[in-house]
Design brief:
By secondary structure, the protein is α/β, with parallel strands linked by helices. The chain has three domains: 146 residues, Rossmann fold; 89 residues, Rossmann fold (3-Layer(aba) Sandwich); 92 residues, Rossmann fold (3-Layer(aba) Sandwich). It has 14 helices and 19 strands. The strands form four sheets. A seven-stranded mixed β-sheet has the order 2-1-3-4-19-15-16, with helices on both faces. Strands 6-5-18-17 form a four-stranded antiparallel β-sheet, with no helix packed on it. Strands 8-7-9-10 form a four-stranded parallel β-sheet. Strand 15 and strand 16 form a beta hairpin. The longest helix has 17 residues.
């Protein structure tokens, strides 16, 4: 099989440029779903994105992470989305907390939750708003499990209270962005370029006050893929962007004629993977050497059992296993099938671009 390297927009720019394909979460999912034949895919991303790609890729595909830190022999420490701690492993979302009504889970969730029998749909902002509209008579029975800031944005746009779970579940990277910093950069941009020439792009995981201000100013509230496309196709000469620095670096690289004025945030989990990790993992995959297999556990957190295949690749440090080697993601067929079906519902149901990119 061919070996391809895919990257999200948040790893460092050199890692992105060394990849065969780069996109947001939604873009990575669509790319996997449109594959015509199986490939080996080496993912520069956090774990849940690799899971989504594996669920949607053709049968026979293999998906690897080039680096991992494993705690207690099972639990992914890095690279993983911090929100996933609240979406499963910390026992915040369990059989006991899921409602008996209508449940939606945010795209930044592990595959076993996406396939859980009590989950009815996966959402980003567009899908959630459509579902509330389609199920108007049942809207009071819908519960959203995921990023609290995204859920509050949905509530604001719908002008109705949303049942959001769990309390305090946010993306720490975007939640650190301060509205006053955004305002300061925007005001300076307007003075320099004229307000009519300045676009505002805000990731939907920002704080509610930042999102509300953005709506008042006519900002695009979107995920990474939507922000990238707006700069690519937009006619503004300058853009104020409030998101993770990896996307900003890629936009500056690809569109040097646009003035990019960032309010930066740093995601350490997305910066874990390096060019050396990619080089070593590509070499070992081509040689048929897999360092470890992370097998999804369908029962309860921690949701992986990690099997070290090549002990020579494993380094113990501070109670953790360091694996600078290809780690194959393995998901039981029943979880893959249900998660893939619900991911496709999200990808092709929602109009426009959602927040979970």
């Amino acid at each position: 099989m061919r070996l391809k390297v895919w990257s999200h927009f948040y790893p460092s720019l050199d890692v992105q440029l060394a990849s065969d394909y780069t996109g947001g979460t939604e873009g990575l999912c669509k790319m996997a779903d449109q594959m015509k034949k199986p490939d080996d895919i080496l993912m520069s991303s956090v774990a849940f994105m690799a899971e989504d790609v594996l669920c949607l890729a053709p049968e026979g595909s293999r998906v690897f992470l080039p680096f991992a830190i494993i705690k207690a022999g099972k639990e992914f420490f890095r690279p993983r989305c911090p929100m996933v701690i609240d979406q499963g492993r910390s026992a915040v979302i369990t059989e006991d907390i899921l409602s008996d009504e209508i449940n939606g889970v945010y795209i930044n969730a592990p595959a076993y939750l996406k396939a859980h029998p009590k989950i009815d749909f996966i959402y980003n902002s567009s899908l959630a708003i459509e579902i509330f509209t389609d199920l108007e008579k049942d809207a009071d029975r819908i519960h959203l499990y995921g990023d609290e800031n995204v859920n509050m944005f949905i509530s604001y746009m719908l002008k109705r209270k949303v049942k959001s779970h769990p309390e305090g579940c946010v993306c720490p990277t975007h939640n650190r962005i301060d509205l006053e910093d955004v305002k300061t950069i925007y005001d300076a941009a307007c003075k320099g370029y004229g307000a009519e020439n300045v676009g505002i792009l805000i990731h939907g995981e920002n704080r509610p006050e930042t999102l509300r201000w953005g709506i008042e100013k006519g900002a695009l509230i979107s995920g990474t893929g939507g922000m990238y496309r707006e700069v690519e196709k937009g006619e503004k000469c300058a853009y104020v962007i409030a998101t993770e620095e990896g996307l900003v670096s890629r936009i500056k690289h690809d569109f040097p004629d646009k003035k990019i004025l960032p309010v930066l945030a740093h995601c350490p989990n997305m910066k874990t993977i390096t060019l050396e990790h990619l080089r070593l993992s590509k070499k070992r995959i081509k040689e048929g050497r897999v360092g470890a297999r992370a097998v999804m556990d369908r029962t309860k957190p921690p949701y992986y059992t990690v099997e070290v295949v090549d002990e020579k690749c494993c380094v113990e440090r501070d109670g953790c296993d360091i694996l600078p080697t290809p780690i194959e993601i393995v998901i039981p067929d029943d979880i893959r099938e249900v998660a893939a079906e619900r991911l496709r519902d999200m990808l092709y149901h929602a109009a426009g671009q959602g927040l979970g990119e």
